[in-house]
Amino acid sequence: MIRAAIVGASGYVGGELLRLLLGHPSIDVTQITSESRAGQPAHLAHPNLRDRTTLRFCAPNELDSTDMLFLATPHGVASRRIDEFAQKADRIVDLSADFRLHDPECYARWYGHEHPCRDWLSRFVYGLPEIHREELRHTRYASGVGCNASVSLLALLPLYRRDLVRETIVDIKVGSSEGGSRPTIGSHHPERAGVVRTFRPTGHRHQAELLQELGLPTEAHRLHLTVTSVGIVRGALATCHCLLTKPLDLLELRRLYRTAYHEEPFIRLVQARSGVHRFPEPKILSGSNYCDIGFAVDPLGVRAVVVGAIDNLMKGAAGTAVQTMNLMCGLPETEGLEHPGLHPL
């Protein structure tokens, strides 16, 4: 059994990690830490785990050595303490944004300050297995991936790899859990319930991940990202309007995506011609590690609309982190991630 610990386990992503790892046949969760809940049993933060574990949160300074360490901490914590964490574990998956960008100058441009340990940036592999599978098999350090970046990248990669896109507008709808478990005025129920609220029309930091992983220069004005909160808890839906370099019909587009993803265990292509579920929907992915992708083409064939859907806490965070861990530890990539989602919900 591989020993694993979660730093920052009391948040939504930490709770999903704990849920997945408790059911993982090759993992023994030895510690979970929390600054605010030290000494409390896990189920007080995650009531769905009642009677599933006897673990109690410990203080971060009580962390012992382990085989695999997950960092589910707020942005900035991992980068300040990475030398300390590296002494505690053979392998680390950091789910925060601290090590997603490779270029220190790019990091400073998007996050507004210098990276506190820029020498570490090159040691982390960007933790999206569909792009970096072989690198993840041979690394000790992997970053998490932004949930908006995950769904957008998976929707766009086949087109960009063939250099078929002239310009893209990505419009993302996200649930309230993307904001984390700490209450804010924006997450207060009277302010949040029933909303369709565009909160980041330009300049979302996950755009930097898209530019990096699609191989586009940061100053390029060929990819645009807008994020809107909607009245759901889980889920992210990316509608990607791709202006093409040459006309494509729907059959060609379907063939291109089938070729790109036919061996990917967590990518499902949605190609229904009738019924309610003709295009991807986050709701039916709740609790699963799948990304569903569907598409349409305008009558002239010059604009492809690619739609991607995920559970933002799973394929957008904890699920992909476990998938990454499986690769890093030489385990079957799908182990512990077989849940197909719920319907109806």
Report on the structure:
The structure is a single chain. The chain is of the alpha/beta class. It folds into 2 domains: 2-123, 3-Layer(aba) Sandwich (Rossmann fold); 148-312, Dihydrodipicolinate Reductase, domain 2, CATH 3.30.360.10. It has 9 helices and 14 strands. The strands form 2 sheets. It has a 7-stranded parallel beta sheet, sandwiched between helices. It has a 7-stranded mixed beta sheet with strand order 9-10-8-11-14-13-12. Helix 1 (12-22) packs across helix 9 (314-328). The radius of gyration is 20 Å and the shape is globular. The two termini are 34 Å apart.
Quick structural gist:
The chain is an alpha/beta fold and 345 residues long.
Provide the descriptors you would attach to this structure in a database record.
345 residues, alpha/beta, Dihydrodipicolinate Reductase, domain 2, seven-stranded mixed sheet, 9 helices, 14 strands
N-end to C-end Cα span = 34 Å
Q: Per the principal axes of the C-alpha atoms, what is the gross shape?
A: globular
* Helix vs. strand class: alpha/beta
Poorly predicted runs of 5 or more residues: none
Order of helices and strands: EHEEEHEHEHEHEHEHEEHEEEH
User: For the residues shown, what is the average pLDDT?
Assistant: 95
> What is the spatial order of strands in the main beta sheet?
3-2-1-4-5-7-6
Largest sheet: 7 strands, parallel
Q: Percentage of helical residues?
A: 25-40%
The percent range for strand residues is 15-25%
> CATH top level of the largest domain?
Alpha Beta
| Count of helix runs | 9
**The CATH fourth-level homologous superfamily of the largest domain:** Dihydrodipicolinate Reductase, domain 2
